[in-house]
Structure formats: structure tokens, C-alpha cells
């Protein structure tokens, strides 16, 4: 297997981009990544996208986007693993470059979520759950994570204030990210007084509905050296599955797919949780970040609530988590999220993260998750 | 949803039919072709016990489109006697009476209807006892 590096990343400001189509927002991000990498061509392309079919009534977007990016006739494939589509897209590109099949691959992600109404979005996102045995009873995604939160509170004494702390921290980080959809600081009181979506989750415990795209150019380390860009190596790449129905898991507060992918990625990278300097994780809901910090081994199981409260995951904490603002503040165009995590880690490892730069960040981890944890993708990157 | 899918799911929605692995005894709802634990392909069809306890719950205040007329409503994960778990609405219960560990029983109810002229879909919801 060849060593693989990320040599270019691209992303524009996320939000409700009513004036732009799915193809436009993807091409903008892809062009930025190609320019950042300084490559004159790409050999192939993967696009993470959860549901262009339900969000914009368009399938077959691999070819559509290759055409609009002006790279036809290279191979281009859409990758779907619900909200983990972006991470899975990077992994597909990584495997292709590592195997030697291609030298330079674009791994992107895109989701255009505001071309349909709010209840259509709720429905589309709900298809990442078991439609026949969860969706049938009227469960929504906030509802599924609310049930995880309720159980986490019951078993470990986690509090609504601790959940709110995740949102407060991530909005604080996002306030320093010019590309974030909601770059404003919020308080614990604001979270707790915001409208309830699915008890105990308030609207400010939930990531927003977002239009956005992100792209990364990956290539062999040999080519990366010739390009003269800072070399950010992908030293760990792993993916795992779990039941997509929450009720079929023996322990509903454990993110076993994340545990499994992390274990494999740490092994491949030769790293331990304490070696990680920064992490971008899938905080689709505040409770998710708490469970994920436990699953990644940053804190003991059940102690995730106290961990965020202690400040350990803040920008100046022991392990800064979601320096970009996370899904919560930066936005969550579902298929693009996994790639945007890579964009942030690359900026941090290159020392280009501006106001929110973490000093001496050398090793970064990304954790991208589909549904309630039915899929998880973990990558570990290191600056050479 | 169109008729074949509703018809196909009737054994589970109406009669609680599950698969019981003849090798390791695991109960799978809905039935599967392969046991995820012991990989056996040998099953018998059994009926789920209808009584169980609430493992966790929430109140859905922002519903998907087919459930707009019912919101807000409670849903939970129910651990049934015998060990199988299902997700179901919890009805005939004030929200402030909901509790983890409470006893509930699955009952046959109208679950959803697609628009004014859509097919009415029936299935299970649970009620406290």
C-alpha cells in the first residue's frame, strides 16, 4: 500500500444558499480544492451525498458533477452512507490511491437541503433510520438521539446543562470560522430556553439544515512532494457498521461502530487516543458528541458529560474537539460533513486555522457517522 | 406507501411474528434469513410477547409529514418479555407520567394515514398497564 497525502482542500461558506444549485456549490468547492493542491488534472472522483434523490430529485450525480466540473470522462461515483457519506467518499479515494489504481483523486461531499420544505427534510433524513421499524412509528432523527440522551441521563446522570455545553463550545469555535453557517456565540440559558424538538433535545441541541459542499484532493506522497505543498498524510482510515435500528442494539448509549472504526484506525496509524491533538467529530446532536468522546477513548464511558463541562474539549483544553464549530455551528449538509471535517483538520495541521488555530497541532482525527451510528468512518491525519 | 408493502408487513404489524433462531435462541423482529449472532439459517416463527418495559422514550414535537396530525406524541423503545425490542408510540398516557421502566403492552392501533385519501396503515402502539 502506498502512502497517501491530502494536498488540497476547498470549501465555501455554508448556509441557506437559495441562489445556488447542487451542481454549483459542488463545483465551487472542487475548484478551490484543485487550486489549493496545484494539480493540473484528477484521475477520478468520489462524491459523498446522502440523498440528492429526496432533496433535489436528482440521482446519477457522479456523472453530472464530473461534467459540470469539466473533468469528463474520468470515473466519478456517488458514495452513500447516510451522514457518513463524506467520510466514506474520502476512504474510497484513499483506497484507490493507496492501491496504486489512481495517482490523484478528488474526494468531495455535497448536500443541497433547502430545495424542499422542512417536513420533507425531516422525512429524508429519517430514511437513514430503519424505515419499516423506526420510521413507521413516527420517530424522527432528533427523536432517536433524544432517546439516546434520555438513556444516557438515566444511566450516567448526564444533565441538560452538559448537553448544552457542547453547543456553547461549538458555537464559540464556529464564531471564529468565516465559513460557518451560524457563527454566533450562544449561552447555556439560550440552549435550555430554546424550543423543544424531542425531549430532552432543544432546537439549539440540534445541527441545522444546510446547503454546502467540501472537497479534498488526495494523492500519493511522492506526487505530493513534487507539488511542494505541506504534506498531511492519511495514516489511519477505517469504517464500521452497526444495526441501523437503535432498538436492535444491546446497549443504546454505546456507539459501537465508532468504537470499532476508531480501534482499527488507531491500530493502522500506530497512535493512541492520547496522541491525538485535535478531533472533528459528528455532533449532529449535542448528545452525539458526548457519546463519541467516550467511543473514541478520550474519556471513560459514561463520563462524556463531565468531560465537556470540565473544558477538556474546548479550544484551549486537553483535546480540542470541533475547532471548526462542528456540525452544530458550521452547519450539516449531510453528505459534505465528512469532507469538511478533513478541510478543518488540514487547515489546523498546516497552521492555517486563523483565530481558532490550536498550537502545535500535528495529529488530527475525524469521526463521521451515519444515522444513529449504523455507520462510522474514522480517519487519522498527521503533518509530516 | 403502496399496498404491496403494507400487505407484506402485516405479519409483523398485526400479529407480531418474529423469527427465533433454532441454534442460539435469539429472537429477531422482523424475522431474518441469517442470525447475526450465530450465523445459523434455521429459524422458527414465533409471536412476540406483548408486554414489556420502556427502556427509553421521547416526545416528538416536530414530526415527519405523515404524522403531522398526531404531534406531539411520545415514542419509546420497549423491551418485551422474552428480550426482543421494538420502537413504538406510547399512547393513552400523559406526557408527565412517562417513565423509564414503566410497564406497557402492545395494542393494535391506527398508525398513520397518507393525506386525506391515502391508505390507512395499522400496526402496534403501546399503552401503559
Structure description:
The complex is a heterodimer of chains A (384) and B (129). In chain A, 38% of the residues lie in helices and 18% in strands. Chain A has helices at residues 22-37, 52-56, 61-69, 85-99, 118-126, 141-156, 160-174, 188-193, 221-227, 256-269, 286-295, 304-309, 326-330, 337-350; strands spanning 4-11, 44-48, 76-79, 104-111, 196-198, 201-202, 212-220, 232-241, 278-280, 363-370, 375-383. In chain A, a hairpin with a 4-residue loop joins strand 10 and strand 11. With 129 residues, chain B is mostly beta strands. Chain B has 2 domains: 1-48; 49-129, OB fold (Dihydrolipoamide Acetyltransferase, E2P) (Beta Barrel). The radius of gyration of chain B is 16 Å and the shape is globular. Classes of the chains: A alpha/beta (384), B mainly beta (129).
Name its key features:
heterodimer; A: alpha/beta; Peroxisomal Thiolase, Chain A, domain 1; 2 domains; two-stranded antiparallel ribbon; 38% helix; 18% strand; globular; B: mainly beta; OB fold (Dihydrolipoamide Acetyltransferase, E2P); 3-stranded antiparallel sheet; 2 helices; 9% helix; 43% strand
For the record, the count of structural domains of chain B works out to 2
Q: Give the chain pair forming the largest contact, with residue counts.
A: A-B, 34 and 35 residues
**What is the name of the CATH superfamily of the largest domain in chain A?**
Thiolase/Chalcone synthase
What assembly state would you assign to the polypeptide chains in this entry?
heterodimer
Mean pLDDT of chain A: 97
CATH topology grouping of the largest domain in chain A = Peroxisomal Thiolase, Chain A, domain 1
| Total beta-strand segments of chain A | 11
Q: What would you call the structural class of chain B?
A: mainly beta
> Rg of chain A, please?
19 Å
Distance between the termini of chain B: 32 Å
